[in-house]
């Protein structure tokens, strides 16, 4: 058990180092030996967890999906809003999420398959919007996969614009504006009227999710 | 006159070479000597037009704004749709536009001010939407600058997603979907009903604009 915990911690140390190096140098220019130096682990330890630079990058990319989960909501439209607003909040506050998003948006990393996060986020959105459709939250003409792709693609650009213009300071405001522009075209009015699209939503959901995750850790340790 | 034309052509040759080198190596790694070799011009000729690598990058960034102009439309909402759809068409077909957009989205080019294109496109959208508002095309609660920023930011991400997923093959479809999702929240129904948001709109506008630009060249030569 202690050994397993140590392995998890080493993996996390390596991923944090990789995130930092990719962010500083870009995917193309970054080297495994820079990541080794930054992480302060042995070559053996690194190759136990990751087989290549691409593997390390995919590890960083996957981190943005996994670590924090939005609580289930009765309204699936609110749940997708919460996923989006939580991601905006984490971009403002978590260097690992930022590194993953920058890798995703690195159009010069041509040897790296960057489609993964777009497709995975698209799937998350698609699933939630299908549930929303099943319980009558969407307007009749809406295609859940098309609307999910519009939200995922638009979010990617809104964050990039906010980063370029002011290093993410206005991000939650811009994302809230995106939601107010896209959702009225897709959601029935009675659901729209009950949504929380406020700028502080991301921070609220984050606090809630971390609390839920903390309880989950206790459950895991007991198991 | 012949000398002036030659200077314009040399500048264009250098910009095309710079676009290619930035696209291959990224802003950070690209060097002026690579651009010199690619362009096949003398050091003197290059420095006559551009003072630094940043200057070259700003030249590439500016190209996406200037070369082709959308014809004036009675509906200013249609005009902004035409600007967006034309840009999607040019991304699919023009390497210089592609290079400019990639530089804009290069979150690793930290020493390069990439806010310019976002702010310039935001200004274009803002102005058109203010005209749309003045002639009663927008819903009463809409803020032209906020809606313009949503469109510009979203477009940037939609193009990035299309590039990552399928090298721009589905771009016009995705951009048409974006317009169908954003405009109903901002535009009065009678205007909405008369908009052309079809996937072929960009190609149509391009043909029209090139024809108009051709005539403009003749006018300039005569002057």
From TrEMBL, chains A, B:
<keyword id="KW-0804">Transcription</keyword>
<dbReference type="InterPro" id="IPR001647">
    <property type="entry name" value="HTH_TetR"/>
</dbReference>
<keyword id="KW-0805">Transcription regulation</keyword>
<feature type="domain" description="HTH tetR-type">
    <location>
        <begin position="8"/>
        <end position="68"/>
    </location>
</feature>
<dbReference type="InterPro" id="IPR009057">
    <property type="entry name" value="Homeodomain-like_sf"/>
</dbReference>
<keyword id="KW-0238">DNA-binding</keyword>
<protein>
    <submittedName>
        <fullName>Transcriptional regulator, TetR family</fullName>
    </submittedName>
</protein>
<feature type="DNA-binding region" description="H-T-H motif">
    <location>
        <begin position="31"/>
        <end position="50"/>
    </location>
</feature>
<dbReference type="InterPro" id="IPR036271">
    <property type="entry name" value="Tet_transcr_reg_TetR-rel_C_sf"/>
</dbReference>
<dbReference type="InterPro" id="IPR023772">
    <property type="entry name" value="DNA-bd_HTH_TetR-type_CS"/>
</dbReference>
<dbReference type="InterPro" id="IPR047923">
    <property type="entry name" value="ArpA-like"/>
</dbReference>
<dbReference type="Pfam" id="PF00440">
    <property type="entry name" value="TetR_N"/>
</dbReference>
<dbReference type="GO" id="GO:0003677">
    <property type="term" value="F:DNA binding"/>
</dbReference>
């Amino acid at each position: 058990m202690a050994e397993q915990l140590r392995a998890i911690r080493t993996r996390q140390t390596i991923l944090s180092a990789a995130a930092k190096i990719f962010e500083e140098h870009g995917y193309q220019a970054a080297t495994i030996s820079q990541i080794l130096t930054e992480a302060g682990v042995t070559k053996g330890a690194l190759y136990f967890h990751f087989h290549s630079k691409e593997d390390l990058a995919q590890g960083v990319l996957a981190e943005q999906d996994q670590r924090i989960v939005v609580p289930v909501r009765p309204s699936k439209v609110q749940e997708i809003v919460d996923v989006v607003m939580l991601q905006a909040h984490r971009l403002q506050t978590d260097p690992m999420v930022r590194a993953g998003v920058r890798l995703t948006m690195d159009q010069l990393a041509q040897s790296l398959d960057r489609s993964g996060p777009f497709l995975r986020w698209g799937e998350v959105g698609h699933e939630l919007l299908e549930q929303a459709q099943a319980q009558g939250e969407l307007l009749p003409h809406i295609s859940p996969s098309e609307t999910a792709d519009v939200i995922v693609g638009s979010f990617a650009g809104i964050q990039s614009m906010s980063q370029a213009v002011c290093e993410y300071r206005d991000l939650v405001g811009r994302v809230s504006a995106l939601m107010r522009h896209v959702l009225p075209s897709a959601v029935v009015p009675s659901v729209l009227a009950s949504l929380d699209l406020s700028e502080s939503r991301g921070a609220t959901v984050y606090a809630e999710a971390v609390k839920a995750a903390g309880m989950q850790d206790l459950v895991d340790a007991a198991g």
